[in-house]
Amino acid sequence: MNVKKYIGDKKFYKIVLLIAVPIMIQNGITNFVSMLDNIMVGQVGTDAMSGVAIANQFIFIFSLFIFGAISGPGIFGAQFYGNDNHDGVRQTFRFKLILCAIISIIGISVLGIFRNEIISTFLHEGSTTGNIAETLKYGSGYLAIDIIGLLPFAVMQCYSSTLRETGETVVPMKAGIVAVFVNLCFNYLLIFGKAGCPRLGAYGAAIATVISRFVECAIVVTWTHRHKERNKFINGAYKNFRIEGKLAKHIAIKGTPLLLNEGLWSMGVSFLNQIYSHAGLAVVAGMNISNTIYNVFNIVFISLGNAVGIIIGQLLGAGKMKEAKETDTKLIAFSVVSCAALGVLLAAVSPFFPLMYNTTDEVRHYATAFICIVALCMPLEAFMNASYFTLRSGGKTFITFLFDSMSVWVIAVPCAYILMNFTSLSIIPLYLICQLVSIIKCIFGYVLVKKGVWIRNIVI
Fold it and tell me: Rounded to two decimals, what is the model's pTM?
């Protein structure tokens, strides 16, 4: 085996890190503060923590729909920028705004009207921990407030993603840093009632989140419009909303599978959690703790995945096909090795992190086990994520739809449903098996990436 094909030189890693590190810092600070937010809500009690965790399942689905909406145009945006076509970038930006506005209206309406019904699907007896009525009250109240911040979140994503596609990763990072510290400060003030503020508990956390989303949006939008020479795509962006019919058709063809993929994948993940919730509220709380610390660690493969999409997309747009393939191999290897090391570190902290929550020993036991399982699977997640962005960078969006979303619904969800309802397995080995089925997805990803089906320029 030629090891050198998997290892880049200093220039390679410098380019990768220049793109990935700002995204990593932004996501890292965001997730770290979200972790502190979660811990603070956890001090209110297990019911509040579980209610907020369930509510955030649906915010997660909304955010993934938004991510899917900007991903299709983003493929074209990165390649247009690589081809020095600023009008093309401008039109993809408009497409994002229109689609995200539609998704926001639908999402806010559904979550606002049916919040009690959808939260109730996660509430089941089965453990000694938790009160269903109290958990529903906290979850519904939190969601009613949090949806106010969804529209500025969507607008911010349209701007930030376009800035990244044009090589500007620092400003979204700085805006994210400011926003998360705003969120942290208001969390402390409003959850615990400090400095003369009312003590609002879990609802205070929701208000803090909304404030931070407006702040982040304002920073990104203001900077973009004040630096029009640097951000040429914003010149005349609102003069009209014209999008060439041929381009709109191409974006729709390539983008629809991505939109459906992100939406269906996020719903699949939430449905998996709903299946797991049948084991009781202690499992819901344990998974919330596990996911909180995992989200701090998974920023590495998520950020490197974004780097794959941007770097490979620009190389393909510039017609550098051989370089794109060689670079992609090194990027995937870098992501997998990095996450293997992080998985060891995550497993090491697994017994200690749950102790930071005001909850029961039952919940802590589940949380520790779940953390160890996700730590074991981190290299698999890194490979799958990098493979997904590789396929997406060349416009193979229908394949990514099958690769990502269908694997959840066709493999993971049926596996979890059958094991939960037709076997006597306890939740910990059941969860381990469901996580390890991702090996099948890794095999498909390896075959598709190696065959090079993604190596093509889609903006010529």
Answer: 0.80
